[in-house]
Amino acid sequence: MIGIIGGGIIGVATAYELAKLGEDVVVFEKKYLGSGSTFRCASGIRAQFTDEANIKLMKYSIERWKELSDELEHNVMFQQTGYLFLATSEKEVETFKNNIKLQNKFGVPTKLITPEEAKEIVPPLNTDAFLAGAWNPEDGKASPFHTLYAYKKAGERLGVKFYEYTKVISIEEGWKIKTTRGEFKVDIIVNATNAWAREINAMIGEDVVPIKPFKHQLVKTEPIERGQIEPLVCPPAWNDSYVIQDGEDGGVICGTALEYESSPDDVSPTYEFAKEVLRWAVKIVPPLRHVHIVRQWAGHYARTPDNNPAIGELVENFYVAIGFSGHGFMMAPAVAQALAEKIVKGRTKVPLDWEWFDPWRFERGELRSSAFQIG
């Protein structure tokens, strides 16, 4: 039996993939499924990264996203509405060109577009401050709620057992997991707790992945006419701020890089963030100043020192998929498949660079180039 600790998108998707390969799987979640980062994310999915490992992984993940609704027999609301990054200086335009060249090398069809072309994609966009855009129409978004539900129901059909409101208290010799619901003996453990991962790793004496939780927040507006801000739109020079219409109801989700290092259990929104994010949102899309805010919430980026996740075998029969630094939702289909195949078969067809994401790299002082961390 394989025990997965953590009932977010990574844990639930990995459970499904393991069950698909014939394994008996049990998942422990201390609150409700999706209560950590998954149900608090901005829904974006992109291959516009700035390094080979993440580009190739996300190109594959997007191919998996295309199949998910049919495979899981539930609509996850995946839409390829694109990502549009906007440059505010000539130096940034050159950076975009270099990024696009690398992405094109690995089959990601990003291209440089003019502000006028960007306005055709996002009609209410303020083009006055922008010189160019990096546009990939194959990026997109999906519903975190429908996706996690789909993976859960598909996993249950294959025999996965989910234990919500079940906190792991300790991990004893021989992989005995003590929980508030009793003791479970498993053969393999997967730590998918993300912002809480250090606590679980410490239970086996291997606290070697230096994750820090940073509180990020979002606000959402009332629904607006569909087709106005369908892609995620972000000028990185404007404090990594972004706007995107929710794929389900058409409200606009607004984010910015204001963050607070805090306990992952602290999900209290702040007025300071609301002021900051709206200041940037109305600069990107001026008509938003006339739209009502209906929600604000907080979640956490579980960040590693290089903003890349730690994925792999920490010690024999103890695996981690943690520290996603804001990218767990978009990467989940690829990472879950890769990890399940690695555990069961010892190999995977997923282009996941195990050395790049090696959880022991921090102990060796081998930081990777920082993963591009927006939306």
TrEMBL record:
<keyword id="KW-0560">Oxidoreductase</keyword>
<feature type="domain" description="FAD dependent oxidoreductase">
    <location>
        <begin position="3"/>
        <end position="341"/>
    </location>
</feature>
<dbReference type="GO" id="GO:0016491">
    <property type="term" value="F:oxidoreductase activity"/>
</dbReference>
<dbReference type="Pfam" id="PF01266">
    <property type="entry name" value="DAO"/>
</dbReference>
<protein>
    <submittedName>
        <fullName>FAD-binding oxidoreductase</fullName>
        <ecNumber>1.-.-.-</ecNumber>
    </submittedName>
</protein>
<dbReference type="InterPro" id="IPR036188">
    <property type="entry name" value="FAD/NAD-bd_sf"/>
</dbReference>
<dbReference type="InterPro" id="IPR006076">
    <property type="entry name" value="FAD-dep_OxRdtase"/>
</dbReference>
